[in-house]
Amino acid sequence: MSKQTVKIDGKPVPVGTAEAFKKLAAAFEKATGETLHVRSGLRTRAEQQRLWDLYKAGKGNLAARPGTSRHEKGNALDVYDSGRDAGVTRANNKRSNWLKNNAHKYGFKANGYGFKQVEPWHIEYTGDPWKTTVKPTVENTPKTRYEVTATSLNGRSGPGTQYAIKTKRPRGFRFNSTKRSGNWVRAGKYWYHTHYLKVVASKPQAAVHMRLGTLNIPLDADKLPDGEKRAKLAAEQINASNLDVLALQELSRGTGYEHKYATMLLAELGAGWGIIRPTTGLNENYIFYRASRARLVDQPADVILTPLAGHRGHATGVKLNVGGKDFVFMSTHLVNGKQAGASREAQGEQLANISNATTIIMGDLNQSTVPKALARTHKTVREHIITPMTRWGTYAKWGKDEVTIKADTILDHVLVPGSATIRGYTLVGVDQNAGTLSMPRASDHVLVVVSVVI
């Protein structure tokens, strides 16, 4: 079996012995208020020979003959504690008695009491010192390119020498990695030790310029009649805005109109547009993309947002490659209702938990400020553009010419990662200074268009 050690108090300890010791130390601290430490763990034959020679010369403590010590096998530990007195290093006091009487509960025996010279500090693990049940912690890292520096480097099934060798890589072999566990990195299915690798400088990826839009366009026939006319009007404004990706919300409302308006709008947009439809019922959020600029990579299942008091919402997602880089776009409409504020905060936290530096969230958030969790991971495009237009909201009362019926109301947001640069922001068909409508609109919301560099 390949042997892997970890360091405890700077001393090498086999992984199995270390796992058991950590449980013992936790119980010791809880019972005594002091911490337990390792003075000596795994020893090489040369280290044991040195201690044996000192013992035989009368200059050292009792030591086993080289080749017979449990320290060499990885089972034995010499320990001490954080107390001001001798503690576990002396027999018949409160802490050494606790260790003697309780070590067996955690897989150890206080075998030091059986020595010719009693050693209360010497304990021995009764299990396999090299076997552990602890799964390695794997973290996501920025993509890094490595080159093998060894003549031949083992690729293992896991991050440690206890895992099987699955492949060998020659000197000069290069690979990209986005996973790390301690001193190991993963490429594909295999893990490599970083001691035999060097980082290869790669050309920085060019920034991606995008034109994005979001529009809430409900099909409420009694309030906003003539769906075909509104679909044509919306398509004209969308095409004129030169968008790469567009998020739309509330497209499937109304009896007999289930998904019909989305198909109608797609036809009006003309050739070259792709559509991402919801994968679950009751989801009214869609994503449109210009196929010549955005390539479909994957469509994950809808995110069902189910926080408080039954206020359910949905988020439709898609992974698109834009400018050679993959991004996840999400179209969502956060809930309203009696507990709307708390619900939106909970839903925002749920979205933040599945977002990263390549996630863009667009939609009707039903509030003037974004949920706190999303505000920590993303920035609102609108709030980073200082123009007179920031006075106006994105909602227009039907039949009136104002952009908003309440000052500073922001319903429709585009949230981009904090690293993005915001180049422009427009409310289509709105007089920037007066906040009045300058052209017909297809909804009681207006089309929000932004330009970003990521």
Characterise this structure.
It is built from eight helices and 26 strands. With 454 residues, it is α+β, with helices and mostly antiparallel strands. The strands form six sheets. Strands 18, 19, 20, 21, 22, 23 and 24 form a seven-stranded mixed sheet that branches. Strands 16-17-15-14-26-25 form a six-stranded mixed sheet, covered by helices on one side. The chain has a five-stranded antiparallel sheet with strand order 12-11-10-7-13, with no helix packed on it. Strand 14 (209-216), helix 5 and strand 15 (245-249) form a beta-alpha-beta unit. The radius of gyration is 32 Å and the shape is elongated. The relative contact order is 0.08.
Q: How helical, in percent, are the residues?
A: 10-25%
Decide which structural class fits the backbone.
alpha+beta
Q: How many beta strands in the DSSP annotation?
A: 26
Q: Please compute the radius of gyration using only Cα atoms.
A: 32 Å
| N- and C-termini, Cα separation | 48 Å
Low-pLDDT sequence parts:
none
Overall average pLDDT: 87
* Separate helix tally: 8
Task: Categorize the overall geometry.
Answer: elongated
Q: Major beta sheet, specifics?
A: 7 strands, mixed
Strand content: 25-35%
